[in-house]
Structure formats: structure tokens, C-alpha cells
Amino acid sequence: MEAKKVAVVGGGLGGLTTAALLARGGCAVTLYERSKHLGGRAQTTDVEGFRFNLGPHALYRAGAGMRVLGRLGVKPRGRVAGESGGSYALRAGRLHTLPRGPVSLLTTDALQLSSKLEMARLLASLRRVDTEPLTHVPMRQWLDTRMSREDGRALVAALVRVATYASDLDALSAEAAVTQVQLALEAGVLYLDDGWAALVDAVAAVAKDAGATLEVSARVEGVVVEQGQVRGLRLSDGSVRAADAVVLAGSPRDVASLLPEDAVLAKEAEEATPIRAATLELGLSRLPRSEALFALGVDGPWYASVHSAYARLGPEGGAMVHVMKYLSPSSPEATEAELEAVMDVLQPGWREVLVARRFRPALVVSHLLPTASTGGLSGRPAPAVPHVAGLFRVGDWVGSEGMLSDASFASAESVERALLRHAGVAPRRLAVGA
């Protein structure tokens, strides 16, 4: 029987993972990436010997990403963030011990005593919270029912921001937020050696080894649909590539642009609210304060982390630091000076050891905020486009499982199940790891 022809549009992690899974399942897969490089927002740039990701990236050890990568035989290399301590809460320009366990919770001056007791009860019960009834509950509302004092609510809000990258807790679904915090508490996160480009390279290698064709600098102009059924792709040179199924691995607007007459996809794109952040990447010849590795803003949406403390991201003795402001509709961008001020508190004297830097005022972190009004994770668009046979989408805004890269991996796996089931092929696992 002739192999099912599948075209994947987009060479980010979602598209590459889809290509790898389907090629291993026996499909004839061709991936089209419009830029010269694979990876999308998982690209890594070398700047003066420092490996800069596009903003701070972390891989949840208990998330869908690790599950799918394990099936592909890819073993991410790095260390669990936070193992070395040195974590602080930032309030009013001062650092306070960030509670990470019972001892630090008792000794920190970031919380009043009554808030410490509430926090202890919340953390002890959080893993058992059933998130399904919380789909239409705003995170802020849920938090107000669990923490009576403002200092406690502010600290939990900071933990939610670092887990979800979302700052608008009035809109964010408590189902999505609590689920993400549960993942973080279960097994923590990995910072990856050599940046996320190493992960991109590994997944791309699996796809190619399985027979997938990966084309870069290949611009797709549209999806060819006849009588409600996908027939292929139309490229920028006017050629048409036939396909039994098409998987679109881009933003909601990218998807809608490839089917410009589709009102349903246009509406989804119009209503999608992305998660954004302002980011500052810094390469330092050394850390002025070697013990200060991590800070979360409690009275503001701030983040700073020395990623090189847990992953190989720069020259020997150097430090690679990510600084970030979580953005929201009320605060849609940030100045570089705001992020520099966070570093002034965490690492005073950093300017004297600065080697490399990069600032982005409003980087897209995820293409869709899972809101309470739309039903949280379960309210996101499904991987299969219901009104076009053979059309699928994957990405951090698709499907009912996971946020951030986990959603990309999980939606790729959902497409694999759908297409291989229709082809009568059972998804398989690699016998050995990478």
C-alpha cells in the first residue's frame, strides 16, 4: 500500500516533532520551512560565545515534551533548575529568600506568619487539586479564595507567572494555571545544554533518519482544498505539491493566512490573545554575586535567572543570564532600563563584566492565552480542523494538553494518533534511547 503523503508547514518544534512521529509511522512526510533555519522560536544564537535562546526556555520534566521526546529517543541534556539554591523574591528593590520548601518557608521574611501558614496549606494540597472544574474560573478569583492576605497572594501569583509566562491572572484560566504549577512542583524543569537549538537538531535528525524531507527557504502560499478535502499545498513559485493530509505548524494568523476564504479560521486568529514578554539576554565574564542565581518579582512581573548555572551556555567561568518582564494588556511592553534595574538588584556590578547583550521589547512566548472565558486548555482549537478533511494544526495554542512547548509536543502526538489510526498503523516507540 502506498504511504500516506503528509505535508507539514513550519519547521519549529511542533512541526519537526510531527514530521518525526509521522515519518517513523510510515508516512511520506515533507516539511516546508519558509526561513533558512529550522527551529522557529526554539532557535539559539551564539553571541560572543554565549548561547542565547529567544527568551528564557525551560523543559518541564513531567510534561508532554519529555514523554514525546522519550518516544523519539531524544534525551535532553542539562540540569534541573534551582538545585543550587540562591533563589529570591524581589519586592520594592530588595531581595528576600524565596520559599522553596518547609525550612525556607519558615525562615523567609517575604511573608507574614499567617501567610506562611496559608502558603504551607496551599502547597501541601496543590498536587491534589482537581483542575477540571476550574476551566471557566479566572486564576485571580481562585487565588483570592485560597489566600486571604495580599503578601501571600502576590507570591503565589509570581509562581503562576513563572510557570505559565502569563501575567493577566484576571483572564487566565485557573485550570491551565494550576495544572502548570502542578507540573513544576512534580518534577521541576530542565535548562538545556547548548540552548534549545540542540533539541531542534536532535528532533530534526530523528525526522530525517526516518525518511522525512525537510525543505528550508520553502514558502507556502496556500492550502489546496477541493470539496472540503485537502489536496495539497501551493508554493510561492506557483507549483502545487499533492498531499493526503496537511499539518500547519504556525500561529493562528499563519494558519488563517493559508486559507484566506475560511471564516472559521479567520475568527480564531482574530480572537487569539498571545502571551508576550520583554526579554534581556546577558553574557557576563563572571557573576558579581555567585550565590544569587534566581529572582522573581512579587510586587511586579519580573524574572531573572542565571541559566548557565544549570546548563552549558557560555565560555568557562562566564554567566548567561535571562531577565524578563511578563507583559499584559495593561502593560504591553517594557523598556530595557526596567530589566536592567532588576539586574542591578540581583547582580550589582554586572555592567563592569558585560560581554554580550540582546533586548526584545515584546517577544511572543505563546500564541494563545488559555482564558477562563474560553474554557482554559480544553477550550483551545483541536488539532484536527473539523470542517476540512485532512487538515490539522499543531502548536503551543492547540489541543487540550499542556502549555508552551508541551502543547506543541502534545498536539503533534495527537496528529500522529489521528493519521496513523486512519492509516491502520499503530504508533511505535524506539527500542533504544539516543
From TrEMBL:
<dbReference type="InterPro" id="IPR002937">
    <property type="entry name" value="Amino_oxidase"/>
</dbReference>
<dbReference type="InterPro" id="IPR036188">
    <property type="entry name" value="FAD/NAD-bd_sf"/>
</dbReference>
<feature type="domain" description="Amine oxidase">
    <location>
        <begin position="13"/>
        <end position="267"/>
    </location>
</feature>
<dbReference type="Pfam" id="PF01593">
    <property type="entry name" value="Amino_oxidase"/>
</dbReference>
<protein>
    <submittedName>
        <fullName>Phytoene dehydrogenase-related protein</fullName>
    </submittedName>
</protein>
<dbReference type="InterPro" id="IPR050464">
    <property type="entry name" value="Zeta_carotene_desat/Oxidored"/>
</dbReference>
<dbReference type="GO" id="GO:0016491">
    <property type="term" value="F:oxidoreductase activity"/>
</dbReference>
